[in-house]
Amino acid sequence: MIGASRLDGASTWTRIFRIDLPLIMGQIKLIAVLTIIQTFQRFVGVLILTDGGPANSTMLPGLYLFQRAFQSHRLGYASAVGLTIFLFILTLTLINQFLLKSSETGFRDGVVLGVAVVLGALPGAFDPPFVFQPDKRWVQRPLVHRQ
Fold this sequence. Notes:
By secondary structure, the chain is mainly alpha-helical. It has a domain at 25-125. It has seven helices and two strands, in the order αααααααββ. It has helices spanning 2-8, 12-23, 25-41, 44-49, 61-71, 75-99, 107-120, and strands spanning 130-133, 137-140. A two-stranded antiparallel sheet has the order 1-2. The model is unreliable at 124-133 (pLDDT under 50).
């Protein structure tokens, strides 16, 4: 395709914007969505270094959720915060799907991909086999068999 564009007399910039970028648009969308999700869920570094910082100056949504759930023992409130984070990430993912449309996928495919990526990245989607209890010890999570 690049050789054909050279034969047609396309400049380098025309080739980049009309051939190269449309070919990699799917990867650009995926990286954008994963970066958004990681930005809202990443908090371990801030938890270790500043624990929210002086006067909550380094507070992140994931850290706020963690503190409400495990330090304040307000699990219902933390669940509501987690749902709000999920809805916000889903909204940003759908906006991303609209703004970075590629010609080979339709709206329905983009929405399905966006919801699948967001649901797959939700906290608790892949629960670890061991959990940290408030009394500072690790215990094995019981296996739940659903029928």
